[in-house]
UniProtKB/TrEMBL annotation:
InterPro entries reported for this sequence: TPR-like_helical_dom_sf, TPR_rpt
PANTHER family: PTHR44998, UDP-N-ACETYLGLUCOSAMINE--PEPTIDE N-ACETYLGLUCOSAMINYLTRANSFERASE 110 KDA SUBUNIT
Entry protein name: Tetratricopeptide repeat protein
Record has Ribonucleoprotein as a keyword: no
Keywords, ordered alphabetically: TPR repeat
Lineage start: Bacteria, Fusobacteriati, Fusobacteriota, Fusobacteriia, Fusobacteriales
SMART domains (alphabetical): TPR
Pfam families: TPR_11, TPR_8
Length: 149
């Protein structure tokens, strides 16, 4: 079922993937990984309050999930809760998470999926962390031209 959920997400069938993960959580209601992934699916739908709720539940199940702190920081940032975002990012960094690489990896995945505006947003976030990477700057310029942003 997890593979089906991931395939549906890749196919941009986010609502269908959410339904799969809801079923998985009924079978294993305390599974932090499932809650985190479902939070990510809501994040993809720009339903940040629901994503935040699920990320926090996932962190209750696994308080050392650095990647979930990163996603939580992103969700808080998107709704303007900057202090909460910084706290979440700090916890991710404390757990040795590389936020710059995460943004670049997300950007690459979004680009491969054809989600160019989301890829652009992730490249910009990476560039704001470290503006020395010329390849990232070139990607930003290319995607801005391609998307009209």
């Amino acid at each position: 079922m997890r593979e089906l959920g991931a395939i549906l997400c890749f196919q941009k069938k986010t609502d269908d993937a959410i339904e799969i993960y809801k079923k998985m959580l009924k079978l294993d209601p305390k599974n932090g990984e499932y809650m985190a992934y479902m939070g990510y699916l809501y994040y993809e739908k720009d339903d940040f309050p629901e994503a935040i709720k699920l990320f926090n539940k996932a962190l209750d199940a696994d308080p050392e999930a650095a990647f979930v702190y990163f996603l939580l920081g992103n969700a808080y940032s998107r709704i303007g809760r900057i202090v909460d975002a910084v706290r979440a990012y700090d916890l991710a960094i404390f757990l040795d998470f590389d936020i710059y690489d995460a943004h670049v990896e997300f950007a690459i995945k979004y680009e491969r999926m054809g989600r160019l505006k989301k890829a652009l947003r992730e490249y910009i976030a990476a560039y704001e962390i470290d503006p020395r990477d010329e390849a990232v700057k070139e990607k930003i310029d290319f995607l801005r031209e391609k998307t009209g942003e």
